[in-house]
Amino acid sequence: MLLLLLALLPPPVGASPFAPHPLPPPASASPFFEGWYTRVVSHDASLSLSVILGSFRPAHGAALTEVWACLLLDRAGEVTTTQRFLDPSLLRLTAAGQNVTAQPKLGTPAAFVWEHPDAGTLAVQEDSARLDFRFPRLRVQAQLAGRVPWDRAAPDSAGPEGWLAGAEGLLPTHYFVQTLASTASFTLTDLAAGTDDDGAAMIASSATLSGRGFAHQEANWGGTFPTAWVWAEAIAADGNAQLVLTAGEFDIAGITTQQAIVAVRTPTASLTLRNIDLDPIVSTRRPCAAVPSFSLEAVSRNSTHRLTVVLEAPRRTFSQRLEAPSHSGFTASPGSVESYSATVRVELFQRQSKLEAWKHIDAFTIDRGALEFGGADIEGCLNASSPLQQEERKGRPPPLRTDDGEVRLDALTPHPRLRLTETALKKIKTTVATDRTAEAIAAALVQHGTELLDAPVVNCSLAGVEHSLLGQARSVLDRTYTLGLLYRLDNNNTKWALRAIKEMLHVTTDASCADWNPNHFLDVAEMMHAVAVGYDWLYHAPPSVLSAADRDAIADGLATRGLAVCAAHWDLTQFTVSYNWNLVCNGGRIAASLALLDSTNQTQAALAGAVLANATRDIQLSLMLSYAPEGAWPEGPTCKCPHLSRLAVMQPL
Asked: What span, in angstroms and rounded, lies between the C-alpha atoms of 563 and 596?
């Protein structure tokens, strides 16, 4: 409903959001900030520099109370951070020589001057810009030309916000990209290179560094920044490819929601994906990892385009804490941090319909990208002065995976860990003893299990219209669940366990079942699920029932006939589709991985960890594409309910 209402909003009143915005009237109960960001990157000189400008007016204020200027300089990974607060009464923001008092006219390119006598000048004139700023020790000069707008068809109105750009008052933060990759020349002057005894700069004898590169330029304005965010931009060494993305916790009409925007431009592709356009986007922020990183996977809402992005930056390359606008003014608690030494890896895929496999159409890597983490994401890490706060984790078990993606074996619950934990088993026994319906279900389970005791093991020959192993795999799934549950409900009666073990040994060691039919990957997934549950639930059966040799043989078969096959098919289409195949295939991969994650066989454990990371990422696409926004399943309840059971194996995560 919110999206429908927003869709009725009028178009933006101002054509060039990069131009200065007049201050809200003093009656406004919301604070107001505005800022401009310019980054120049020279791959040839291994250098990147940015000048960031910001101003703040408090709620009900009549004038600016804070003006802030920042210089970030990265020379071959060595980072210098310089921040200054300036006298706000001396700032001049002019358009055509006049103070800014009104929104720019529709269709008007940005043309303005930001000028402060104690800092310097930013002058923007349509497709060009000039910067000349003095910071303690350094003078920074740059010329930008050949603007590359977000959208050449609407260079002075279209930007990252898309159709929400006109939603003034609904978004706490507005965002406009002026240029993705202008050509740039720059000069750095070391003002302290030849100082006299008084410390006065001797410009004539100062050292200078000049070069050429490309520039990214953008503006932000609004009430306050998000509570947590990541932002990135990158320009290829030849300027022909660019990336821009932002993700975090944003308030839209008073509702806090996770939102992401990602845009990639190459000579052959121009792709922009947004959550607000109903494009499913899954991302992972790891600012506190040993190597801070951000990864994202996005699919267009019609499922014809897909892209993946991975950014990593060495911890030592991040800046000091930068000031960021809050409700009460600029603050560096927590503020944000930026690195200009990020490695950016992008892959693009395309297809004509959901029924087709993804076609890999492009891949590229950009060095010296910009990566920023801010807000709650960096509490206690990335150049923080206070220890990591753990209050929100009190009373909770530690996460299975660390921020850098490593498995925490100390947090992995012991066997049995898949669905039927000891706590859950006690609840079931209590319910069976006190509830007539549960008692009847348990009796039916015993009857079914008794029939299975004398049934032959499955025949692993391909069968049916699909020429598959799916029917047999689901028979094994039924048997391990039924017999394993009866063993644990029936006071560890060994007859149930022995029959389940017989089935598992057959499918994991018998030559007739050596191939679980990866050509129809549901077969492999369901067989992995079946064996994983039986292995997990019967793991602690006495040696007279399950010998160490038999347990190792089952684990080896699960690894070689299941997980190793998964590792040989990382890019299988069925792992990333939106419909039920995703849940079944990834549910099987997750179940098998969790069963063997703490194996004493290091090869098995490593394989399980790799498959688990892949599967937990891919399964999110189905949840985003098919269950969003309210949990309905497009294939109906008949298909939804059985496949939800595949999600249940993720409980240990």
From this structure: 10
Cβ-based neighbour number of residue 221 at 10 Å: 20
- Report pLDDT digits (tens) over 435-472: 999 999 999 999 999 999 999 999 999 887 667 899 99
Handedness of CA 364, 367, 368, 371 (dihedral sign): positive
The residues, any chain, with a CB within 8 Å of residue 490's CB and separated by 6 or more, are 446, 496
Question: What does pTM read for this prediction?
Answer: 0.62
Q: Which domains does the chain carry?
A: 1-223 (2.40.370.10), 225-396 (2.40.370), 409-650 (1.50.10.100)
| Residues facing residue 293 across a β-bridge | 286, 312
Give yes or no for a contact between 320 and 339, defined as CB atoms under 8 angstroms apart.
Answer: no
CA distance 382 to 319: 9
Separation of alpha carbons 31 and 224, rounded Å: 7
pLDDT tens readout for residues 244-279: 999 987 665 556 678 899 999 999 999 999 988 999
Could you tell me if 412 and 652 are in contact, meaning their C-beta atoms sit under 8 angstroms apart? yes
Contacts of 152 (CB under 8 A, 6+ apart): none
Q: How far apart are CA 232 and CA 493, in angstroms?
A: 59
Rounded distance between C-alpha atoms, residue 554 and residue 97, angstroms:
80
Give the per-residue SS3 of 419-465: CCCHHHHHHHHHHHHHCHHHHHHHHHHHHHHHHHHCCCCCCCCCECC
Q: Report the distance separating Cα 146 and Cα 215, nearest Å.
A: 10
Distance CA 85, CA 67 (A): 6
State how far the Cα of 89 lies from the Cα of 420, in Å rounded to an integer.
67
Phi, psi values for residue 521, rounded to 5°: -65, -15
Helix, coil or strand: residue 46? coil
Number of helices (H), then strands (E), in the chain: 11, 22
Which spans in 367-421 are helix H? none
